[in-house]
Write a structure and sequence with these properties.
Helices cover 43% and strands 13% of the residues. The strands form nine sheets. A four-stranded antiparallel beta sheet has the order 9-8-11-10.
Length: 734
C-alpha cells in the first residue's frame, strides 16, 4: 500500500500482522514475475496477509510503469478485457490466455454472470450500486469523485467502454523483422517519421485486427462450421461460385452472400460465412492490388509488374498507424518488399485555437470564402509553405493567407505588370517586339551586374528545384521559390527600374526587358505546380515574347525548365548577398536613429574580419551608396576596434548534452573574452571544463565597443551636420 504522510489506508490497522513492507521501486525487478499474496481463512477484516505458500492463491502482485503514485493508492486492479495496459500486463505474466479473456459484460454494456448481484445492469449505471454494496459490507476505505479524461463517442457524446471482442487477426508479430527491414528500403520525407514514429510503431508491432462487427463493409471471405473447427478462405468470385454451386455472382456485399453455403470438399460438412466484415484499412492497404483488379486479368498482371512498388505516396502524419502501416504489412506478407519507394508525410491542419477543425464547433473559416476572397493559389501557397509539409501541425489563420497575397502574389504580379507595361512602351517607341532568346544569357549578363546576378540566381534555382523535387523535399523547394520572388521584386526590379524604363539607352532597355521576360517565363513554369492559376495567367501573356520552343496552349503542358548551370556564378551570387546584407543593416541603422533615407549621410563604415567579404561588397559599392544615400563607404577588417563579441551557452542543446556539468560550462562560456569568442568562431570548437563545445552550441552576439558607445551619437550628429549644412542640396555619387 502507498503511504500518505505517516498514515496508511487500512480499515483497521490493528487487525493485520505485517510480515514486511517494501517500497514500490524495489518491485521493479519482479516485472513479469508474480509476487504472491496469500489469504489465510476467510476474506474478513481479521485476515492475515502472508508472503508464504501455505494457502490458496487468490491474488498476486506485478509491477509496471503505467501505474503512478500521484493519485489513489498506487495500486490498481487488472481487468484484461477492459484495458490495453491491463491486457498487456496480464498476458505478459501468464495471468490469462489471450484467446480466452474473462469478460462479464455483454455487447450492450451490461453485466453477465458471475457478477450475479448486478446481472443485466448497464456498467455506468452500476457504479453507485457497487459503492453501496461495498458500504454494506463495511469494506469501503474512501469514496470520492474526481475529474479525469474519458473517451466519449464523437457523434452522440455518450461515454464509451473499452472492451475486448472476438476478432480475426493477421499475425503481424511474426513479420516484425521483415517489416523493420522493408521500412528502411523506402525513403521518407521528413526522415524522422520513418525512423522514429513509424519505426517505433513497427518495433512494437502487434497482431493486426482486420475484422469489424458491422453490416456495411466488405465481408470476410471465410466460411466455417458451427464449431469453428473447419475453415475455408475464398480467393475469388469464381472460386465461390464453384464451391456454392451458384453462378452470376456480381455483388459480394453481405445481403447477397451471407446465405450462401459451401460444402467442404474434404469433409463434406456444410460451412457458412462468418458474420464479420473487413476493417476498411485492410482495403486501403490492398489499394495497389485491388485498384487494378490484380491478379485476375492479364492487363493487371502486366501493369502491376511495372508499377509496384509505387514511386511515391503522400498522406498525413496520423497514417503511420493507418494507411502507411497497412500498405507495409500487406506488401511484406505478400511480396516481402515495401509498397512504395518514397513516402511524403504532411502534418495536420488545426483550427486557429489549436483544436481539431470541427463542423460542430465551427472553429474554422468557410474554405470557399477564403478562396473567393484571397484566391486558391494564395491558399495553396500558404499551406505548402508552412510547417505542414515538415509533418508538423499548422494552426490555420486566414490572416496568413492574406499575408501571402500581400507579400508574394502582389509583388510577383507587380513585377509581371511592370514588364508588360514597359515591353508595350518599347514596342510603341521602336515598332519592335521583345523576343526571349535573341541574346544569350551570357551576353545579357556581361552588360549589367544585376542581369548577371539574376540569371545566375535563376540557374541555381532551377538546379535546386529539380534536385529537391526529385527527392520529394517540398519543404525546401517552396521557401527557395518564395525567396527568389522576393529577390526579383525587391532587388532586381528595384535596382534596375530606370534602366528597365528606358532611361539609360535603347539597347540596354531592350536587353533588360528581354532578361526580365526570360526570368518571368521560367518562374511561371517553376511555380506552375504550386500556383497553377496565376502561373497560367502570366504565361498566357508572356508566351507572346517566348521562343517557338515555349509556345503551348498551357504552361502546364510544358516541362520544368532545363538546367542552366553554364550561367551559374556562385561567387557573384554570394557577393550580391553580402551587398544585400550591408544595405539591409544600413537601413536598420537608420531606422534605429530615426534618420530617413531621404536624408543623405557623409559616410558609413562596413566592418568584417574577412577582406574577401569586403572586396565583394566593394565591387558593388555603387548600389550600396545609392540605396543607403551615402557619399562614402569606408571598409575595415579591424573588427575588435568596433565591436565586442559575447558568448552564451544554448541551454536547450548543451543542457541535454552536459547534464549536471552544464552550470560550470555555462559560467565559463559567459566569461569568455572577445578574442576567445573570435577563436571559437574561427576554429569551430573549444574545450571548456573538459568538454568539447561546438560553435553551433553557442549563441554569439556583437555589441558596439565600449570606446565607441559614448561617442556614437555624437559622431552621427557630426556627420549629419556636415552633410545638412554644407551639402544639403548635393546628391551622393552612386
Amino acid at each position: 500500500m502507498r503511504k500518505r504522510g505517516r498514515r496508511m489506508f487500512w480499515p483497521n490497522r490493528d487487525s493485520y500482522n505485517f510480515i514486511r513492507t517494501q517500497r514500490r521501486q524495489s518491485l521493479r525487478f519482479w516485472r513479469g514475475t508474480r509476487v504472491r499474496i496469500w489469504w489465510v481463512g476467510n476474506m474478513s477484516h481479521s485476515s492475515t496477509i502472508l508472503y508464504q505458500s501455505t494457502a490458496i492463491e487468490l491474488f498476486f502482485l506485478v509491477s509496471d510503469d503505467y501505474v503512478t503514485d500521484d493519485s489513489g493508492t498506487g495500486i490498481v486492479h487488472q481487468a484484461p478485457a477492459f484495458g490495453e495496459d491491463d491486457y498487456r500486463v496480464c498476458v505478459a505474466v501468464g495471468a490469462v490466455d489471450k484467446s480466452q479473456l474473462p469478460c462479464p459484460v455483454d455487447e450492450s454494456g451490461r453485466f453477465l454472470e458471475p457478477v450475479h448481484d448486478f446481472v443485466g445492469v448497464y456498467v455506468k449505471e452500476a457504479d453507485k450500486l457497487i459503492v453501496d454494496a461495498i458500504k454494506k459490507k463495511g469494506r469501503i476505505v474512501k469514496n470520492e469523485q474526481y475529474f479525469h479524461s474519458y473517451p466519449f463517442c464523437w457523434r452522440s457524446e455518450t461515454p464509451l467502454i473499452y472492451k475486448a471482442v472476438p476478432a480475426w487477426f493477421v499475425k503481424a508479430e511474426e513479420l516484425k523483422d521483415k517489416l523493420l527491414e522493408n521500412n528502411l528500403k523506402s525513403s521518407w520525407v521528413p526522415k524522422f517519421v520513418q525512423t522514429n514514429r513509424f519505426g517505433n510503431w513497427l518495433e512494437n508491432v502487434r497482431d493486426w485486427n482486420v475484422s469489424r462487427n458491422r453490416y456495411w463493409g466488405t465481408p470476410l471471405p471465410i466460411w466455417t462450421n458451427e464449431a469453428h473447427t473447419e475453415r475455408l478462405v475464398i480467393g475469388s468470385v469464381e472460386e465461390l461460385e464453384t464451391l456454392c454451386g451458384k453462378s452470376g455472382i456480381v455483388d459480394i456485399h453481405r445481403e447477397n452472400i451471407d446465405d450462401l453455403e459451401i460444402v467442404n470438399p474434404e469433409t463434406g460438412n456444410v460451412l457458412k460465412r462468418v458474420e464479420e466484415v473487413f476493417d476498411c484499412w485492410f482495403e486501403s492497404g490492398s489499394m495497389p492490388y485491388a485498384s487494378i483488379h490484380y491478379p485476375f486479368t492479364e492487363e493487371a498482371r502486366n501493369y502491376f509488374g511495372n508499377a509496384f512498388p509505387a514511386d511515391f505516396i503522400a498522406e498525413g502524419l496520423d497514417q503511420t498507424r493507418g494507411w502507411f502501416y497497412t500498405l507495409t504489412v500487406l506488401a511484406t506478407a505478400l511480396y516481402d518488399k515495401p509498397a512504395f519507394k518514397n513516402c511524403i508525410v504532411n502534418g495536420l491542419v488545426l483550427a486557429e485555437d489549436g483544436k481539431k477543425m470541427s463542423k460542430r464547433l465551427k472553429n474554422y473559416p468557410d474554405p470557399m470564402t477564403v478562396v473567393n476572397e484571397h484566391g486558391s493559389d494564395a491558399l495553396r501557397l500558404y499551406l505548402i509553405n508552412s510547417p505542414v509539409v515538415r509533418a508538423e501541425p499548422l494552426r490555420f489563420r486566414e490572416a496568413g493567407v492574406r499575408d501571402v497575397v500581400k507579400e508574394i502574389m502582389l509583388p510577383w504580379f507587380n513585377a509581371y505588370r511592370f514588364f508588360v507595361q514597359n515591353a508595350k512602351h518599347l514596342e510603341f517607341e521602336t515598332g519592335e517586339s521583345i523576343k526571349v532568346g535573341t541574346h544569350t544569357a551570357k551576353e545579357m549578363g556581361s552588360r549589367n551586374p544585376m542581369d548577371h546576378w539574376v540569371m545566375s540566381s535563376l540557374g541555381s534555382l532551377i538546379h535546386f528545384v529539380r534536385q529537391e523535387m526529385a527527392a520529394y523535399r517540398l519543404f525546401t523547394v517552396v521557401p527557395r521559390l518564395v525567396h527568389f520572388i522576393e529577390d526579383l521584386t525587391n532587388w532586381y526590379v528595384r535596382l534596375n527600374r530606370p534602366r528597365l524604363k528606358g532611361a539609360i539607352s535603347l539597347d540596354d532597355w531592350r536587353i533588360g526587358l528581354e532578361n526580365l521576360a526570360d526570368v518571368l517565363l521560367a518562374l511561371s513554369r517553376l511555380m506552375a505546380s504550386f500556383t497553377p492559376f496565376f502561373s497560367e495567367y502570366t504565361y498566357q501573356n508572356l508566351k507572346n515574347y517566348a521562343p517557338e520552343s515555349l509556345q503551348s496552349e498551357s504552361v502546364h503542358f510544358l516541362m520544368v525548365p532545363e538546367l542552366r548551370d553554364d550561367v551559374v556564378d556562385e561567387k557573384f551570387e554570394a557577393a550580391v548577398g553580402r551587398m544585400q546584407e550591408a544595405i539591409t543593416l544600413g537601413r536598420v541603422a537608420r531606422e534605429r536613429r530615426n534618420v530617413s533615407l531621404k536624408q543623405p549621410l557623409g559616410k558609413i563604415t562596413l566592418v568584417h574580419r574577412d577582406q574577401n567579404v569586403l572586396d565583394s561588397v566593394m565591387s558593388l559599392e555603387s548600389y550600396v551608396k545609392s540605396e543607403l544615400n551615402v557619399q562614402e563607404v569606408v571598409y575595415s577588417t579591424l573588427e575588435s576596434e568596433f565591436v565586442v563579441l559575447k558568448a552564451d551557452a544554448d541551454g536547450k542543446i548543451l543542457g541535454k548534452k552536459l547534464g549536471k556539468s552544464f552550470a560550470k560550462v555555462h559560467k565559463a562560456v559567459r566569461s569568455m573574452t572577445s578574442d576567445q569568442v573570435q577563436d571559437l568562431e574561427s576554429n569551430g570548437s573549444v574545450e571548456i571544463e573538459g568538454h568539447k563545445i561546438e560553435a553551433c552550441d553557442i549563441r554569439i552576439t556583437r555589441d558596439l565597443a565600449p570606446s565607441l558607445k559614448d561617442q556614437a551619437e555624437h559622431l552621427e550628429t557630426v556627420c549629419l551636420r556636415a552633410v545638412s549644412e554644407g551639402e544639403r542640396n548635393k546628391r551622393p555619387q552612386s
